[in-house]
Amino acid sequence: MKCKFLLVLLFAGIFCCAAQQYGGAPRHDIVKLSLLWPNSYCLTNDHNCRPNVPQYFTIDGLWAEMNNGDKLENCETRYYMTNSMIDSHKVELLKYWPDLSTYNYQDSKQLWKNKWETDGTCCSYLMRPEDYLVSAMNLRQSHNMYQILTNAGGILANGSSYPATKILDAIRKATRFMVDIVCETDRVGNVYLSEIHQCLDNHAGAFVDCDNKAVNCDQDPIFPDALFAAAAKTNRKASPTYVTRLAAY
Ligand SMILES: *[C@@H]1O[C@H](CO)[C@@H](O)[C@H](O)[C@H]1NC(C)=O
């Protein structure tokens, strides 16, 4: 009797998920486009970066989330990202969605394949691997975050730090949508502006408001340029005047 009951539950579960996977509405509430500031990425979390990284915001990922902040990963799919799909977007991928650890195109392919498998497969039951790559790059083109911060906000990537609210406000005014930002801290305690997250509806068709959150920004984050990043990399010693000295660099 108990066994039968469990069987019914099991079948109900299979039916439910199969329907959601291939027929029904997407299971997630929103899609997030995450952009990263390469200088900050390379200074934090022991990321190994190639010598020169782009001085513009690059794509970190495009992923599906629930309204409570849970991220969906590794969803079932019938589709695999092939080399030829990647090849047909080689130039744009290398420019806007680079693997910051390498200049090698062949090695970089694993990054895009991983992003598809982890995040892309959950973005929508309609999205196929090539759409996923193109979507992320098109969405990134909607706003020039570097220019928004520089022009509208007076927030220059020059190694100075800026209040998180000032960064959030500048982007909200320019894009008309609230975003979230993420800060990362290096080994000596410097806090950097690391990521900007933009929110989209569950088909990644239109921008919507994020929460206007500044995550892990315990201090006003530094927005580092290449010069600052190079100096910070070679001078890891903690010192109270560290930031001031580098800012004067
Ligand atoms: C960076 O730019 C801001 C805004 O123009 C300015 O206030 C600040 O002094 C600059 N910092 C450096 C280190 O040049």
From TrEMBL:
Domain of life: Eukaryota
Protein name, as recorded: Uncharacterized protein
Organism: Bauhinia variegata
Organism lineage: Eukaryota, Viridiplantae, Streptophyta, Embryophyta, Tracheophyta
